[in-house]
């Protein structure tokens, strides 16, 4: 089984986004980030969803700013994206049989498209160039690969149109279900490369 832990990337966009929220905190909310962290200490619950709800209902702070404030309070990066290996391990916790195929897929993508970024999230792994060109996540049916393709790219066997957003992106247009017996054929990499080139 290949070791792909070194192939994960860190998103500069997340750093830029949190820096922007920090810089505009006073203008948007009337208080500094430090003042909000002190207010967050008074939250009566430790459950993540309830904390976000409390901040919105009690102080009018929406989810992204609340997540930033609680990440500072808890001493953890926003979204927990600093440990991609742990995120992927948790993602595949119930789908360990799909891990070898997933690792082979990521290795093929990083080998064939070295400028691509592989970014782990809680419920999927995103593939980026200038924009997101693909998402990967396990499912009961098999390893799901979503791709942002031109509408004309429909002749690949098993390629299905997406009817609702997947992987946190509405850019995905098609998806495939890969199963244990599938090998990563050359024409699959051609399809992935097409999505990469369009991103």
Record the SSE blueprint.
Layout: H1 12-23, H2 25-29, H3 33-40, H4 48-59, H5 63-74, H6 84-91, H7 99-112, E1 117-120, E2 125-128, E3 132-138, E4 143-147, E5 160-161, E6 174-178, H8 186-198
Antiparallel strand pairs: 1-2, 2-3, 3-4, 4-6, 5-6
Largest sheet: 6 strands, antiparallel
CATH topology heading of the largest domain = Aspartate Aminotransferase, domain 1
What's the CATH first level of the largest domain? Alpha Beta
Oligomeric state of shown chains: single chain
Strand content: 5-15%
Spatially, the strands of the biggest sheet line up as 1-2-3-4-6-5
Number of domains: 2
Task: State the end-to-end distance.
Answer: 30 Å
Entry summary:
With 199 residues, this protein is α+β, with helices and mostly antiparallel strands. The protein contains 8 helices and 6 strands; from the N terminus they run αααααααββββββα. It has 2 domains: 12-80, no CATH class; 83-198, Aspartate Aminotransferase, domain 1.
Detailed description of the structure:
The structure is a single chain. With 199 residues, this protein is α+β, with helices and mostly antiparallel strands. The protein folds into two domains: 12-80, no CATH class; 83-198, Aspartate Aminotransferase, domain 1 (Alpha-Beta Complex). It is 42% helix and 14% strand. It is built from eight helices and six strands. A six-stranded antiparallel beta sheet has the order 1-2-3-4-6-5. Helix 3 (33-40) crosses helix 5 (63-74) and helix 4 packs across helix 5. The radius of gyration is 19 Å and the shape is elongated. The two termini are 30 Å apart. The relative contact order is 0.12. The model has no long low-confidence stretch (mean pLDDT 84).
């Amino acid at each position: 089984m290949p070791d792909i832990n070194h192939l994960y990337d860190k998103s500069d966009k997340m750093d830029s986004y949190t820096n922007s929220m920090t810089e505009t905190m006073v203008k948007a909310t009337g208080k500094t980030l430090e003042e909000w962290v002190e207010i967050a200490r008074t939250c009566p619950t430790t459950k993540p969803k309830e904390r976000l709800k409390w901040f919105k209902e009690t102080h009018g702070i929406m989810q992204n700013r609340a997540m930033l404030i609680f990440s500072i309070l808890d001493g953890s990066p926003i979204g927990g994206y600093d440990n991609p290996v742990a995120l992927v391990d948790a993602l595949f916790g119930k789908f360990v049989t799909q891990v070898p195929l997933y690792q082979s897929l990521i290795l093929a993508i990083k080998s064939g498209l070295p400028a691509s970024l592989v970014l782990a999230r809680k419920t999927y792994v995103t593939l980026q160039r200038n924009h997101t060109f693909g998402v990967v996540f396990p499912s009961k049916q098999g390893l799901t690969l979503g791709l942002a393709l031109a509408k004309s790219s429909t002749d690949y066997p098993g390629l299905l149109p997406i009817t609702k957003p997947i992987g946190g992106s509405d850019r995905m247009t098609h998806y495939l279900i890969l199963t244990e017996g599938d090998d990563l054929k050359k024409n699959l990499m051609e399809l992935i490369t097409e999505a990469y080139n369009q991103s």
